[in-house]
Structure to design on (526 residues):
């Protein structure tokens, strides 16, 4: 910007107790006129934000039209999985997760930025003081003179927000503060879903490991029986080899399952803000796969606008970008500042304000942008384009949320059907395997028929466990898609980092040690 500045001020210097004799009334009148114009105008340029109205479906695609939709029950939805250890891990993750701590710091940053923006609406006052000692030597007489000088003063300035640039900045900062709070809620939603999903996966791997061990032991018994029959001449060496190979194949699945279980436990430890192996002993004991109480109410699509933090975050970002258009437009208009100063000078410190000279000045400064090569206009277009992007991002977040819910509803419904069919399959194969062993011992059934029955039973039982895990995982995904997150209190005003002699540290350093395994991190229930 290439501004033209016009400063109107009046200056005088006088001894104390002597009034100024020349007030320059014309300058004062001009300042008064400008101030009155600023107060009366109250002009704020740029578009005012209005929350967008979107046309949403009236019901979900899989919903029955005859039944009215019940609102979703999202508060502490994970408790319906009926697992106290999972409840404890979620509390610990909320208290110790580093992504949550980062989101809290962003909230504090946004609040401080808002206070900065509000501060620009008020005048600024600065104080100054100086002390000098001078020495001079006369060239003719060679005499030496020394003296002291002390100065003190106040400088004040106030930018009149004629076209609302500062008001729009405050508005944008307020929306940014709201967005940071929604970002924390979105982080918590993702965190809780990840903790629950990894916990269910860990329990599922434990169940599959136990199944593989039981099945391998049963197959080892069959192999021993086959060897006994071979030694008696009632079986072939091929049957002995097949029986031993079947048991070894089942046992070969165990290392992969143990590795996957360890990875799930490591992920849970990191999600709670601990070292990867911190929860290994705590989660080493086998536990049942959590089974949710189903079905659950899903409400209507319009509920997502209030429940999904990512949608609310995108809406606040859209509002913030709208306010920034007004900031850019205000920069194209003239600006007026009122400045003033008062200073006192004396030869002794105690003379300041008493036996010293006093000077003061006051006046407005008008800045008018005349030629800047189109930069200010381009800045408005940039802000408008960013606003458009934010609006499209908001629309996209709504569509993505609708898609998430629809997919989760279908996946959960179909997985429940699959799990029920697999349960029937397991019951039938279990009966077939039991009868097959009895007939094989009696010598009325071939070994190949028994081998196939045992293989089918193991495959069906393993698939059933995987399906039970998938049902719980789809339940978690549906609650996440509906916007179910943390509804408890979060203290975002307290810093998570403390400065000590050796540098910045987490306020709860025990989170990184195995000592945290026995008890939740400090502040887990806040």
């Amino acid at each position: 910007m290439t501004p033209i500045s016009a400063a109107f001020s009046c200056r005088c210097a006088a001894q104390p107790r002597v009034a100024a004799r020349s007030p320059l009334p014309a300058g004062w009148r001009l300042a008064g006129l400008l101030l009155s114009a600023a107060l009366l105008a109250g002009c704020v340029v740029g578009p005012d934000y209005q929350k967008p109205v979107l046309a949403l479906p009236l019901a979900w695609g899989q919903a029955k039209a005859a039944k009215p939709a019940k609102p979703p029950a999202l508060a502490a939805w994970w408790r319906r999985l009926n697992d106290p250890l999972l409840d404890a891990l979620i509390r610990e993750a909320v208290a110790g997760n580093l992504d949550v701590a980062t989101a809290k710091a962003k909230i504090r940053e946004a609040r401080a930025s808002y206070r900065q923006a509000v501060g620009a609406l008020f005048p600024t006052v600065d104080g100054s003081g100086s002390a000098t000692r001078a020495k001079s030597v006369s060239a003719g007489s060679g005499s030496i003179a020394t003296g002291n000088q002390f100065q003190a003063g106040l400088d004040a300035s106030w930018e009149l927000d004629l076209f609302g640039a500062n008001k729009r900045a405050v508005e944008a900062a307020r929306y940014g503060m709201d967005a940071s709070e929604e970002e924390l809620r979105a982080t918590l939603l993702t965190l809780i879903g990840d903790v629950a999903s990894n916990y269910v996966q860990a329990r599922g791997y434990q169940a599959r490991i136990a199944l593989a061990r039981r099945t391998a032991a049963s197959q080892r018994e069959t192999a021993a029986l086959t060897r006994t029959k071979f030694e008696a001449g009632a079986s072939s060496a091929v049957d002995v080899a097949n029986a031993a190979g079947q048991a070894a194949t089942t046992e070969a699945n165990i290392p992969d399952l143990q590795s996957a279980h360890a990875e799930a436990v490591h992920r849970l430890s990191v999600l709670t803000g601990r070292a990867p192996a911190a929860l290994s002993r705590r989660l080493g004991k086998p536990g049942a796969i959590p089974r949710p109480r189903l079905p659950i109410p899903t409400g209507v699509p319009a509920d997502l606008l209030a429940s999904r933090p990512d949608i609310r975050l995108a809406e606040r970002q859209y509002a913030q970008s709208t306010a920034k258009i007004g900031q850019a437009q205000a920069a194209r208009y003239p600006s007026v500042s009122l400045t003033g100063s008062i200073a006192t000078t004396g030869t002794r410190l105690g003379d300041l304000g008493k036996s010293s000279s006093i000077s003061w000045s006051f006046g407005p400064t008008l800045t008018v942008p005349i030629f800047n090569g189109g930069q200010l206009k381009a800045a408005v277009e940039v802000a408008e384009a960013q606003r458009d992007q934010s609006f499209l991002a908001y629309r996209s977040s709504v569509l993505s949320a609708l898609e998430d819910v629809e997919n989760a509803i279908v996946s959960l419904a179909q997985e429940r059907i699959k799990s029920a069919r697999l349960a029937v399959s397991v019951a039938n194969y279990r009966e077939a395997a039991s009868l097959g062993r009895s007939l094989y011992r009696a010598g009325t059934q071939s070994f190949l028929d028994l081998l196939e029955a045992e293989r089918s039973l193991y495959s069906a039982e393993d698939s059933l466990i995987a399906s039970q895990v998938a049902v719980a995982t789809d339940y978690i995904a549906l609650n996440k898609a509906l916007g179910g997150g943390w509804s408890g209190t979060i203290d975002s005003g307290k810093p998570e980092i403390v400065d000590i002699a050796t540098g910045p540290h987490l306020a709860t350093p025990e989170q990184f040690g195995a000592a945290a395994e026995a008890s939740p991190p400090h502040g887990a229930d806040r």
Summary: Residues 2-49+74-132+147-488 form a domain with the Outer membrane efflux proteins (OEP) fold (CATH 1.20.1600.10).
